[in-house]
Amino acid sequence: MKILLLFLVFLTVGVGVYHVFKPLPQDLSYKGPERPLLDARLLTDLTYRDASDSVQLEHTIFDEIFRLIGQAEKLIVLDMFLFNDSRPDDSYRPLSEQLTSALITRSQQVEDIRIVVITDPLNTFYGGRKSPYFERLKDAGIPVTETALDQLRDSNPIWSAGWRLCCQWLGNSDTSGWLPNLLDDGEVTLRSYLALPNFKANHRKVLIVDEGNRFRGLITSANPHDGSSKHSNMALSFAGPAVNDLLASEQAVLALSDARLNLAPDVSPNTFGGQDESAVGSVVTEQKIFESALAMINSARQDSKLDLAMFYLSHRELVTAFIDAHNRGVEVRALLDPNKEAFGHEKSGIPNRQVAMELTRAGIPVRWCNTHGEQCHSKMLIRRDTNDQGQLLMGSANFTRRNLNDLNLETDILIRGLTKTPLIEQAQAFFDRQWQAGPDTTPILSLPYEAYADHSQIRYWRYRLMEATGLSTF
Fold this sequence. Notes:
Largest sheet: 9 strands, mixed
CATH class of the largest domain: Alpha Beta
CATH topology of the largest domain: Endonuclease, Chain A
């Protein structure tokens, strides 16, 4: 018995270590070359309360997504993390229904159009339920690929090592559930709950379509999820050769899920005339996002300016890099979500309030988005240098270990140009509007650090443990 127990311990530890350090699937953690961004458009969603306390929605992202789908003639590739209708009440926009209907309608209107949908298995509770939206898409002849997350490295090895030995091989069933479904009505299996604590995801939010005689890509932080429809978010829509790089990064996700499809259109620079190279962009995924962010921070010099708007900030190397940048004379500002609510449920404030305490004690100003049930869901870092050069990093990735250390699937775009480049100016204006609107202005879009200050050492070290071990959802 002792020998058997010792063998099981070594086997579990060995499985855990392997799946933390195993080679990544091919073509993940990608950084494309700098390409001219043609006809690039910054899109923003902003939710706030006006002077009469009425909810105001200034949202543009999904209106543009539906427009792009509605004009496509050859190709639609959609990769979205949350794609379901769970929501606290009926006041939320039915994005999942609208997106499903838009895709089916276009497939019926254009006989030979190629439509590919990629998503995360959380939407079927890891195989424990059927998604009515995915079933409708499949019935209309539109393939839906649920990403094979088991091919990714394990972000929570304390749980995942045992799960891989005892439970992964069991599969799942969408017809034999007996436990309440966290996402929707109905019931799911115990196997769904056993898969949940692996805490890994295809967290990308990407759209690629043809538009006239060219192709267009869109990278965003927004999900087609009803309960997320009031969140504040950002997106970049662009044409040009960088769309080829974006498409190649999506081919990699299809390949790891054994859904290899030939989706390679020609989006070469020669397709276009009169290119505007005032801004260039590089598609970055997974850990290449971290490397890009760290380079932006570490290479900033005295009197440069760094502005961060982030839903989750917890990555230790980036927190330290921001503090070091401040200490060498870089002007750093952090606009954070207070992490107080998620889809009608109260949250503890971890990790942002604990990181905000560190930043504030180091002298970095922090403000909180003034949320009322929705989330400040943007993920953006802007840098402005004294020589009028600017950089902008934005997309799906939170600044956390899970999002940046080759654990989740993520897509961002790194933009470089003059600070007067429209994209960088618009992103800066979006940040400044939220930063400056409060507390003496109307509407109050942000609150001072003191509004959600949390100096609890217990919660601070809880955050540190969660970040280090992967025992967390951030």
